[in-house]
Amino acid sequence: MYDLIVIGGGPAGLAAANSAWQKGLRSILIVERDKEAGGILNQCIHNGFGLHRFKEELTGPEYAARFIDMLKETGVELMLDTMVLEITAGRQVHVISAKDGYQVLSAKSIVLCMGCRERTRGAIGIPGDRPAGVFTAGSAQRYLNLEGYMVGKRVVILGSGDIGLIMARRMTLEGAKVLACVELMPYSGGLMRNIVQCLNDWDIPLYLSHTITDIRAENGRVSHVTVHKLDENRQPIPGTNLEFDCDTVLLSVGLIPENELTRAAGIQMDPRTNGAVVYENMETSVPGIFACGNVVHVHDLVDYVSAESERAGAAAAEFVLKGQREGEALELKNGADVGYTVPQKIRAQAVEKAADVFFRVRRVFKNSVIEISDGEKVLASFRREHMAPGEMEHILLPRKILDQARGGQITVSAKEA
Prior knowledge:
By secondary structure, this protein is an alpha/beta fold. Helices cover 22% and strands 34% of the residues. The radius of gyration is 22 Å and the shape is globular.
């Protein structure tokens, strides 16, 4: 019987396990399906990580190494090359590996840190042939940075998420010609710094309100793609087609939290995030099971993943050592132009000073206001100079504001100032 089992050895799992150890747990296991800890960070060889957490720029492997080194100073066990098949509401974890076979492990608490996966071509239904040369951006990144394979020479990227933007620069540095980055929405889905550093600095055009409408092949490989401009209903506008001769298409069309294990355990899910519904301490609807990082909602910075996961690890330790938190929960709802909120529930009595709230807006804002209300009155407002869907927003809700809420709920809205 472990005090804590952490599922996933990426940045979320490493941070959660380290935090739980620092809070007093001494029987902790991390289960990781890959052969090394670090998760997706191992293939992210570009810098820009750690500015918030470590106050310096690190590459992905360097960032992961910081937490791996921290764990070497603890007694946390690491079970690598092991797949988790099932978790139960009774906090049993079914795992399998070539080394140890099938095992059923028990824990007093569990933290879910499985991360997220990419949407594929099949999920978005691009018309045309089905040739070689179509990759998700993350798969291409792994081939290039970890396996040492060049995936193409003339590239079109669909979607302007951060991975796609970073791969535009990476492919260019390796000698490929990135012809275009094509984005369905009228705004980019990535961070502004990545648009500047990965597209603008390399003269790679970004086509907003455009999409790929056809993929053609020769000899089984991508040979060219057709791109159309879209109208306000996201339908192709006749006569606006652009033709690109290319051998590779990279897809950066969204990330999906990896939650098959979560659903199978009967944990309440949020259709807005495709992740678990969580309380202020990242506890799910099943007592003793916590979730954090990209398995809850897709983050833009790994520093935020680590901070959130440290809270989850500390909360798991609190659950084991002191028992479950009590108190009525306020429900957080998304108001005007807000896509989702995390956490979805806050037990005000359990909040010492303030509760962290993360959310994303649905459109681009310049001078704007985040408004917190309880349905009857405005409880607080926060000013912003800029907000965009590609950049996650964070606010702190002080305990005194939570205590003022009436009706059992709080609504988070965004509007022009």
